[in-house]
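Our example copied in:
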Amino acid sequence: MESTMLLLAGGKSSRMGVNKALLRIGDDVNISRVASELTKVSQNVLIITNTFDDYRFLQLPLIADLHKDHGPLGGLHAGLTASKTNLHFLTACDMPFVSAAAINEIIGNYQPAFDAVIPEINGRIQPLFAVYHKSCLPVLAECLMRQELKMSHFLDKLAVKIIKENDFKLYHDDPEYFQHLFFNMNTMEDYQEAIHINQKGLHIKDGGHEL
């Protein structure tokens, strides 16, 4: 099934103090690293942002929130509304080590009986690194109308398939590498940790990796 990649680039980065999407890690800026992996999965990539000028350099379609200042749910709503496919992969710009291989594995777990496929890693769900079907849109619109902006409230209304570490081939191949895929940056300390991880030699190539 054809899919669309939705990349959220609208966070306020309040804890970071600077736009984390544009922080440099290695030879590239963070959001470019993420977008590069997304384009390996699908040529349908939408950047969800309300600051178009910041991201024109990506040369990818830019989509504004229809419900501004409504957090990730507002971004997901904008992406689902704008896309031309039924299946979507949602991720955020603060996960610098996402890989096309992991995305493909999550998409591969989709079944028509479900509205979403969401990883649960180390006991924590990852709704911003997950698959959503267009069937979510009416529920999402209702949540926004009611100002129910918590992701947990939205997910409670969906048929969700949860997948865990053991469901990933990547986890069995290399558990340490697998943990990096879900690393996200919220503070400057997280950013320094990301630089350290990158300097250790984590290189994602065509869905594989070298350490």
In short: The longest strand covers residues 3-8. The mean pLDDT is 90. The two ends are 32 Å apart (CA to CA).
